[in-house]
Design goal:
There is one protein chain. With 163 residues, the chain is mainly alpha-helical. The chain has helices at residues 2-20, 23-39, 50-69, 88-106, 110-121, 126-133, 137-159. The radius of gyration is 17 Å and the shape is globular. Residues 72-88 have low confidence and may be disordered.
Length: 163
């Protein structure tokens, strides 16, 4: 179990944190997810990669938490780490870019945001995203297309100072 936790905990935590933006709640869901795997390892049938199955469990636990808590989760500010040789201007520019992307991501529907996160941040294939979200692969492709278009338009408007 220790090896499993070391191999997958950061990925599961990052996935949950990206949705909840509550580090303590994300940690709780990570622990609940790992506990579920420990109690029922026989539920993994090998239909997908293990990481896909694990993210699916975390997703269900997270959705349960969201349903129970409602829209009360607050956004947490992320501080940029200090890096040697990086100027203050570079840090501010990078922070503005992150805030712009976050603002645009927040404008997406939950389904589109999750789909985009799984595909690009978790590096899952179309089939894996479809398995996690329990939707057809063509729906994943459509969601990704529309999400990218919305992000592109939102970022363009931000750069033009209109959003």
């Amino acid at each position: 179990m220790r090896t499993l936790y070391k191999a997958h905990s950061r990925t599961v935590y990052a996935f949950v944190l990206s949705r909840l933006r509550d580090p303590s709640r994300a940690e709780e869901i990570l622990v609940d997810t790992m506990h579920e795997v420990w109690k029922h390892p026989d539920r993994f049938r090998g239909d997908s990669k293990f990481s896909t199955w694990l993210i699916g469990i975390a997703r269900h636990k997270m959705l349960d938490a969201l349903r129970a808590k409602g829209p009360e989760y607050e956004e947490l500010d992320e501080e940029l780490p200090e890096e040697d040789g990086e100027s203050g201007f570079d840090r501010v520019a990078e922070q503005q870019q992150r805030e712009g992307v976050r603002k645009c991501m927040d404008k997406l529907s939950d389904e589109h945001r999750e789909c985009l996160h799984l595909a690009f941040y978790q590096d899952m294939s179309i089939a894996e995203v479809a398995a996690v979200q329990k939707i057809p692969e063509n729906t994943v492709k459509t969601r990704l297309f529309h999400a990218r278009q919305k992000i592109k338009n939102c970022l363009r408007l931000l750069l033009e100072g209109m959003a």
